[in-house]
Inverse folding.
């Protein structure tokens, strides 16, 4: 009798869960793990804005094959150690699809989870080649370019437009930053531009004056930084304090409003390579209206890629049904018309083409696209 | 290289100002250790809270409010010191006082727990994003050695001066005031001091409060000089300051200063003449070496095990 009493609530609870499960089977769950806390929160915000707007717009138009999409927001903090738990939460929630991770550092370990569990995941933010090169995934895709597309693009711009005699490259020793810095260094080498200094700095340090004094004596014509805005902001501010006025350049990871807040006037004139501004892409007028309807900001490097990720998932589900294996097969074969233009995938889930552009920070902190 | 000497001077200043930052936080560690023989691992978080209170005060006043900058900084310091002192008091009462007299490891774990709690407390309250601190103290003092202009930003000079002044004040407080004498008695033998009629609980609370106040001053000034805050800055700052305190001899106030400056110089010169990638390796290698030859740190006294 006693054991019966003990078991009953558990049985009831299990029954309730099974019941709950059957109710929610009427929706298609999409896991959205991204940083909701920590210094990279801004990128998570952009992904949420893009993915949630797409999901709400699609639900408002009747959903997919009569089912609504159900977003599951999960926090990965942009920390590698939280990546696998976050991916496992997607698995445990029963979602078969995901718009997953902003940072390369979290995406690289998480890819294995999606691949092993057969979950179709698309990252709108992770640009490291390691994401797809290490295990050549079948279930994992991107709606953003790779560093070895961005790195050579930046190097090309440096060599052909800026024509510096000597370049210094700094990076933050992380997957994303050092990967990109290596790409830029190697491409510059091929283009015949001298890289006088290549060095890593510590994330989270508050004082970079030693490195800046060193740069000052080396006197390069351009300093490229591979990493995120928090470190570059301090570098810029402390460089100007020491009277170092060299042109700085960085990747999309540095390009956001927080950079300008930290660096202040020192951010003016900074060059960044970003995905081209997809909000100006012809054919996106309707998508911009959705952003207005749901009161979200369409700006930001990862917003439109996140929107596109949902579009691609939905198009594929419409075409071949909800079986993730079939969806993945379909995605490798088909071409999609999305918020970031026409999308086609190669065998390991990378975009066949992706467009970058160079932006300059003006004295009000806005990023203005430069015409080539 | 004709620029060698002026660059050396510039790096020397860089190292000194970084060292002063470490020293300013290290005094808090060393003082608490000197009196109750316990490492307060939440000290880095107290420093972070001081910086946040300063920033919140600054936003409340508004940078463009027309008040003179010196007055704004003074108000920031006063409010940060007061609020943070309350935190220091509360942390001691909640996390350490109930565990006093237990095994030494217990308050250590409790301190680490407190530090994680405070990080997340601020992360929830203020958001986890990096916050920018407006540059109130701008400009720099420059002098030329040959062609090369050596630059010393005023914000950094201020940190060096404030660290020195606080250290001297603290020295006199410990050596010459009544409370200071009672603190020294506690640091020699807590139970005996109690038997002789010193309210040891009060002294310990007071120590934590003073430690928190010092951390708040550090937090505000360093935040103004660096210009960036997030709820997790206390961890790294705490580890470095703790290292500085150990290097100088934990429990010794001039030792904290010496340790901080040494650590700052070691990091700066490693970054300048080897590579910034190796600066922590060099700095912490130095720590291991010094501790091998002087286990009590540079200015620490050999500890007699208390019975």
């Amino acid at each position: 009798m006693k054991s019966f009493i003990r078991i009953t609530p558990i049985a009831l609870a299990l029954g309730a869960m099974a019941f709950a499960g059957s109710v929610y089977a009427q929706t298609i769950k999409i896991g959205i793990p991204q940083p909701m806390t920590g210094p990279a929160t801004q990128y998570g915000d952009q992904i949420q804005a893009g993915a949630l707007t797409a999901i709400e717009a699609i639900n408002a138009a009747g959903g997919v094959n009569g089912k609504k999409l159900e977003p599951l927001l999960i926090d990965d903090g942009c920390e590698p150690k939280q990546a696998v738990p976050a991916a496992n939460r997607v698995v445990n929630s029963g979602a078969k699809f995901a718009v997953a991770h902003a940072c390369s550092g979290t995406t690289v370990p998480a890819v294995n989870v999606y691949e092993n569990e057969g979950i179709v995941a698309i990252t709108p933010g992770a640009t490291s080649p390691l994401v797809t090169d290490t295990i050549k995934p079948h279930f994992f895709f991107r709606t953003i370019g790779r560093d070895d597309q961005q790195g050579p693009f930046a190097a090309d711009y440096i060599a052909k437009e800026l024509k510096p005699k000597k370049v210094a490259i700094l990076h933050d020793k992380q997957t994303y930053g050092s990967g990109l810095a290596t790409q830029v260094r190697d491409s510059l080498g091929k283009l015949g531009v001298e890289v006088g200094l290549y060095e890593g700095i510590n994330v989270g340090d508050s004082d970079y004056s030693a490195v800046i004094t060193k740069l000052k004596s080396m006197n390069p014509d351009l300093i490229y930084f591979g990493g995120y805005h928090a470190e570059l902001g301090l570098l810029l501010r402390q460089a100007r304090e020491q009277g170092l006025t060299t042109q700085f350049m960085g990747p999309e990871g540095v390009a956001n409003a927080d950079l300008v807040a930290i660096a202040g006037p020192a951010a003016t004139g900074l060059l960044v390579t970003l995905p081209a501004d997809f909000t100006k892409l012809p054919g996106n007028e309707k998508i911009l209206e959705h952003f207005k309807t749901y009161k979200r900001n369409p700006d930001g490097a990862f917003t439109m890629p996140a929107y596109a990720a949902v579009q691609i998932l939905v198009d594929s589900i419409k075409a071949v049904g909800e079986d993730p294996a079939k969806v993945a097969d379909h995605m490798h074969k088909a071409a999609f018309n999305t918020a970031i233009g026409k999308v086609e995938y190669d065998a390991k889930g990378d975009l066949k083409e992706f467009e970058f552009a160079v932006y300059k920070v003006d004295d009000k902190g806005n990023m203005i696209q430069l015409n080539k | 290289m004709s620029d060698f000497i002026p660059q050396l001077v510039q790096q020397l200043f860089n190292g000194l100002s970084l060292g002063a930052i470490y020293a300013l936080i290290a005094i808090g560690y060393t003082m608490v250790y000197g009196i109750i023989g316990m490492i307060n691992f939440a000290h880095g978080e107290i420093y972070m809270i001081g910086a946040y209170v300063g920033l919140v005060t600054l936003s409340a006043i508004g940078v463009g409010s027309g008040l003179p900058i010196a007055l704004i900084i003074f108000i920031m310091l006063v409010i940060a010191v007061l609020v943070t002192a309350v935190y220091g008091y509360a942390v001691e009462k909640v996390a350490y006082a109930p565990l006093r007299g237990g095994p030494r490891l217990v308050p250590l774990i409790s301190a680490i727990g407190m530090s994680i709690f405070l990080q997340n407390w601020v992360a929830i309250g203020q958001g986890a994003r990096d916050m920018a601190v407006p540059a109130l103290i701008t400009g720099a003092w420059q002098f030329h050695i040959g062609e090369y202009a050596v630059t010393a930003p005023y914000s950094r000079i201020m940190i060096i001066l404030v660290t020195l002044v606080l250290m001297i004040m603290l020295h006199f407080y410990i050596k010459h005031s009544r409370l200071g004498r009672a603190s020294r008695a506690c640091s020699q033998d807590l139970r005996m001091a109690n038997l002789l009629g010193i309210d040891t609980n009060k002294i310990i609370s007071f120590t934590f409060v003073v430690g928190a106040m010092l951390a708040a001053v550090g937090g505000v000034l360093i935040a103004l000089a660096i210009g960036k805050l997030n709820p997790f800055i206390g961890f790294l700052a705490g580890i470095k300051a703790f290292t500085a305190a150990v290097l100088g001899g934990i429990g010794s106030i001039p030792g904290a200063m010496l340790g901080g400056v040494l650590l700052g110089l070691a990091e700066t010169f490693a970054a300048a003449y080897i590579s910034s990638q190796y600066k922590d390796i060099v700095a912490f290698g130095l720590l291991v070496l010094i501790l091998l030859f002087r286990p009590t740190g540079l200015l620490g006294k050999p500890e007699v095990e208390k019975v």
The CA atoms of residues 174 and 180 of chain B lie 4 Å apart.
